[in-house]
Amino acid sequence: MSMTAPILEVTGLKVEIPVRDTVLRPVRGIDISVAKGETVAIVGESGCGKSLTALAIMGLLPRQAKLTSERIDLNGESLSEASPRRWRKLRGDRIAMIFQDPMTALDPCYRIGDQMAEILKQHRKVSRSAARERSLELLRKVGIPSPEERLNQYPHQLSGGLRQRVMIAMALLCEPELIIADEPTTALDVTIQAQILRLLRDIQRETGIGLILITHDLGVVAGMADRIVVMYGGEVVEAGTCDDVLARPLHPYTEGLMRSIPVPGETRRGETLGFIPGVVPRQTGDLTRCGFLERCPYAHAPCAEGPIALRDAGDGHLMRCVLPADGSGRDPEAWTRQSEASS
Ligand SMILES: Nc1ncnc2c1ncn2[C@@H]1O[C@H](COP(=O)(O)OP(=O)(O)O)[C@@H](O)[C@H]1O
Ligand SMILES: [Mg+2]
Question: What family does this belong to (predicted)?
């Protein structure tokens, strides 16, 4: 069978933001593609450039940010030069976004039903009653009890979990080809988190929508994603199928993220998890060596000899690291020594 053409194809995505004394380079040339029916997770700590990548794909970057990209194609249409007007037409219709905090996307002054009808009217010729029917249908689909009542309520009358369900319903209104969910459950408590993720997964599988799921929590992606893209310091440092990356993390940063996932039955309550000492550095200038060097327990001379290329370790599993892909050259005690040295 031939490969399905991707819904989204992004190559060489860069974002630069001039600040008072310098130019930040929070996104340094990202490639991402999403096929029909595929879920791609973008994973990395806070500050790695995940949200700016999402906003760039949505045409929603802050005004002062400068976007350059070899290519942003949505179902064959080139968007790298699209006008603000074109973006407004696409957003909510062919691509939709779900944010971490629904209160930033919902208008506190309007009833849920009116906000949903407004989105529909922007993109489709629909009557009032048809808009209401479609809204009800979607509120039901995302598991909201008494949807008729909810339509007449204001966002603050809903719990955080219900608001996030409303956001998902809104994203689905015009049957988009691609949804970008940026930390959609981070603000919710653990039980609700699991429910919302399951809902997103079920809807994604049922509709065949392409989904980009952004999270700082690698533990969230197992069972959700087909592929994982690990971002560090504005670059892709590892990418591959979910199974490959979780079973055989190749970049030390991914290893570090995995050490931070609690293991049910093994991690005791209150126990400190393995974490990665240090912070994501501020991104300016050109990289002249590995961006993860300062925090890497395996760092050695070759890591400083120049910027590290992203290479294929076999079967499309990509790594941006000089270590051998077979796991040799990694001392299992290195992480422990490093966290002891930093505490
Ligand atoms: N409007 C902005 N002005 C200046 N710096 C910004 C702006 N937005 C984001 N940044 C910086 O860019 C980096 C990446 O941000 P972001 O994409 O939000 O990271 P993530 O979503 O992975 O946490 C961060 O260091 C952040 O401080
Ligand atoms: Mg973010």
Answer: Belongs to the ABC transporter superfamily.
Residue 343: predicted pLDDT = 72
Give alpha helix (H) positions in 173-233.
Answer: 190-207
**266 pLDDT above the threshold of 90:** no
139: domain range?
A: 104-173
Examine the domain organization and report whether 53 and 200 are in the same domain: yes
Q: Are residues 169 and 209 in the same domain?
A: no
Q: Which of 96-110, 210-224, 225-239, 329-343 has the highest mean pLDDT?
A: 225-239
Provide the pairing of β-strand 23-35 with 6-18: antiparallel
Block residue for tokens 């940026």: 182
The number of the ligand nearest the C-alpha atom of 15 reads: 1
Question: pLDDT of 191-243, one tens digit each?
Answer: 889 999 999 999 999 999 999 999 999 989 998 999 999 999 999 999 999 99
Average pLDDT over all residues of the chain: 92
Neighbours of ion ligand 2 (CB under 5 A): 51
Q: 145 CA distance to ligand 2 centroid (A)?
A: 30
The DSSP H or E segment spanning 338 is helix 334-342
Question: Is 1 a domain residue?
Answer: no
The pLDDT value recorded for residue 261 is 81
The last residue of one of the domains, among 173, 189, 209, is: 173
Domain boundary among 143, 173, 203: 173
50 in contact with ligand 1, CB cutoff 6 A:
yes
Together in a domain, 308 and 207: yes
In a domain? residue 62:
yes
User: Which ligand has the nearest atom to the CA of 42?
Assistant: 1
Whichever domain contains 75, its CATH number is 3.40.50.300
For the chain, what is the radius of gyration of the CA atoms?
A: 21
Structure tokens at 60: 């929603």
Q: Are both 183 and 238 inside the same structural domain?
A: yes
pLDDT of residue 104: 80
Residue 187: pLDDT band with limits 50, 70, 90: confident
Residue 278 CA, ligand 2 centroid: distance in Å: 19
Same domain, 90 and 120: no
